[in-house]
Amino acid sequence: MTRSLSAALPATLIAASAFFASPVYAGPDCGEDCAKACCAQKQACADDCAKACCVDLTNLIPDLTMPELQIGATAPKLHLAQFIKGDSVEQFEKGRTYVVEFWATWCGPCVKAFPHLSELQKKLHEDVTFMGVNVWDTEKGESQAQRIERVSEFVGEQGDKMSYTVAIEDGNKMAKTWLKPAGQNGIPAAFIINGEGKVAWIGHPMNMDKPLEQIVAGEYDIEAGAKELRNQIVAQAGFRAFAMGIMSPDEAEAKKAYTLGRALAAQTFSDNAMYLNALAWPVLDNDRITHRDYKFAKDLAYKAAELTEWNDAGVLDTYALAQYKTGDVAGAIKTQTKAVELTPEDERGREEMVERLEMFKAEG
Fold first, then answer.
1. How far apart are the C-alpha atoms of 350 and 363, rounded to whole Å?
2. Which residue in 35, 281, 338, 345 could disulfide with 50, CB within 3.0 to 4.6 Å?
3. Domains of the chain by start residue, with CATH
4. Phi, psi (5° rounding) for residue 103?
5. Kind of pairing between the strands at 97-103 and 80-85
6. Is the dihedral of CA 81, 87, 90, 94 positive or negative?
């Protein structure tokens, strides 16, 4: 059950494109018909909802900056101190596809991705070269030579789990010239370089199977991929801006954040119950929020409940609290009762749900 914005946005999720739909900017012709398609409840749409379907999200996010290195750009040069496994790669050969994947010994998700990368290398070895580049992995007081020795030993212990080329960056040059310009603040992160030496895809290595196969087959739409990545970046930045904005003590700033939240709900997260629920919950429960828009929370929780066919206990818990906060105590009791019934007795959070139900009943 998602109870907070922070819980809904772990680093690994940020990198996963499957969680983000492409925003639809309807433009100046957006009207009632368009609004009905994305507003939270099946009723005539209020102005704020209709506007949310049409507004360009980029105009609502303060200080939004797009990464310098984007899909379609020429791949940066390789800055590698040493290859410790597999064939060396000095430069990207024309006509061949490369996967440059960034990892570290301390990164659990990176280690979990090793076997998958090895399987893909085995499957696509005729067309693709996989290269794992060790970054952000220098221990305090450690020299480059000591780092190479330590990481080499680690790689050796992985055996067949790492059946592809592995290298160590030169100092921190790969992180500075690849990850930072691409706005990649976490690892694992993978870049697919196509046969023309262009960055064709950026994301989590566990999500690259389909685009990689399309790139190898010459069927990948690089312009569409670039647009999708830009949309993800906007959505992520918007989610963070909303989380900060609704906690502003300034009413005007908080109102701007709710406008952004409605736009995110209408355009980007309209089919994602988890994110709709995550947008709604803190409005109802976060003690740091001064200005609360309970209707906003209720609308989003309602849509999330519809998407989950009224069978997700966490979503129902949110919607019940929204009903209670907007004066529908009887509705809150009914919804919360079902939420409790759907939650196993030993599940974490059930006790709080029961307490809220009792609170509703005491005022019902």
1. 20
2. 35
3. 80-197 (3.40.30.10)
4. -150, 170
5. unpaired
6. negative
